[in-house]
TrEMBL record:
InterPro entries recorded: DUF6735
Species this protein is from: Halobaculum halobium
Protein name: DUF6735 family protein
């Protein structure tokens, strides 16, 4: 079944190419396998072809041109598929229109200087937690949370996922008992998730709404819900690179 992830590589124009990894979400270790020397991961520690391909993608090479680029030569396998699923996307478009929060277990953002930020995906759908919810959207319906790292290992990743699953179970019961409406259930889920994440990690939730007028950052439709400010509004932040 794999541990599926999406990987967004920043281009020179500030947009992104979007790639798929079938095993990249396992323990979020892909964060440490992507580097300037091996941009798509894998055992080849000096992937000249991969570096050249990524450089051309960063300059605007379209996905349709990659097949011809890769044809005619055997190349080592990589953890991330070299051919992008899409090109010329913003991060807003990726998290709202391409990221499947149920089937993609992780999301990685790679800067032009190969700073890699790892996000764990948390699906907000309640169809398995409530008898009154028939179906929940999977694309664009969830949250992204960074994890803490210690000595190259993610800390508390499984604990957060377990807490989120338990939270959804409680909210599902409240929906079935009529305590929550679908709208109040979503708001409660966001608020309690923010409390569990706290200020040591970053929590990002796509809204699908127009950019906030006061936002001065490019990632304008990503809301970082800060637990102490949930009821006063949303704080707009750019994705921070995990250490």
């Amino acid at each position: 079944m794999g541990h599926r992830a999406l990987v967004a590589y920043e281009r020179t124009d500030g947009q992104y190419t979007l790639h798929y990894s079938h095993w990249g979400a396992a323990n979020l270790k892909l964060k440490h396998r992507i580097s300037a020397e091996s941009p798509f991961g894998g055992d080849d520690t000096d992937s000249k072809w991969a570096k050249q391909l990524l450089a051309e993608l960063a300059d605007g090479l379209e996905a349709d041109a990659v097949d011809a680029y890769l044809a005619g030569e055997d190349r080592p396998s990589t953890v991330v598929e070299p051919k992008p699923r899409a090109t010329g996307l913003t991060l807003d478009e990726i998290v709202a229109d391409h990221l499947d929060y149920l089937h993609h277990e992780a999301f990685f953002v790679v800067s032009t200087t190969f700073e890699v930020t790892a996000y764990r995906t948390l699906w907000s759908g309640l169809q398995y937690d409530s008898e009154t919810v028939e179906q929940g959207e999977t694309v664009g319906n969830g949250a992204l949370a960074t994890v803490r790292w210690y000595d190259g290992e993610p800390v508390g990743d499984g604990h957060l996922q377990g807490q989120f699953a338990a939270l959804k179970d409680v909210i599902g019961d409240m929906l079935d008992k009529g305590v929550f409406t679908p709208s109040t259930a979503r708001q409660y889920l966001k608020r309690k998730l923010a409390e569990r994440v706290g200020d040591r990690q970053e929590l990002l939730i796509p809204t699908g709404e127009s950019p906030f007028e006061k936002a001065s950052l490019n990632h304008s439709c990503w809301i970082c819900y800060v637990a102490t400010a949930v009821f006063q509004g949303s704080e707009w932040v750019s994705p921070a690179v995990g250490s």
